[in-house]
Amino acid sequence: MADPNALVQAVASMQATHMVGKPECDVLLGQAVVYMCQAPKSVAIYVAMGAVRDCIRNEPTPPVPIHISNAPTKLMKDMGYLKDYKYTPDYTDPDEAKQEYLPVELKGRVFYTYKDLVKPTPNRPPTPNTW
User: Fold this and answer.
1) Which residue in 21, 23, 110, 116 has a CA-CA distance of 20 to 30 Å to 104?
2) Residues 6 or more apart from 87 whose CB is under 8 A from it?
3) What is the pLDDT of residues 107-118, one digit of tens each?
4) Which long-range contacts (C-beta less than 8 Å, at least 24 apart) are formed by 64-70?
């Protein structure tokens, strides 16, 4: 769905229905139905998942970047595993901790582009454009 809050509404309605039971939960279910009907729809996630699936099936699997690869042995540390890894909690400014997580072969590849079809609200944080 184009509205990320739709899943929250559906799960909350299901949980409340389980806890309250019939007939009291009818209004909760009705609220969820109305929300889903009015929510903007999108197939962007299906398209993105298909693109990722095609990439996995049809292209060679690149290695995990060495700076984020686990280094359980001294040899691996000596070979550069985890060198220059930035542990985000160690940074007060998140921009200083930015690093590339995708393999070089996938750099710049966009599988999903976010389109904000939901009206912004004061409680809704900004969403990144691409993932």
Assistant:
1) 116
2) 97
3) 888 898 877 665
4) 64/103, 65/100, 65/101, 65/102, 65/103, 65/104, 67/99, 68/99, 68/101
pLDDT tens-place string over residues 36-79: 998 888 888 899 999 999 999 999 999 999 999 999 999 999 99
Kindly report the pTM of this predicted structure.
0.61
| Residue 29 phi, psi (nearest 5) | -65, -40
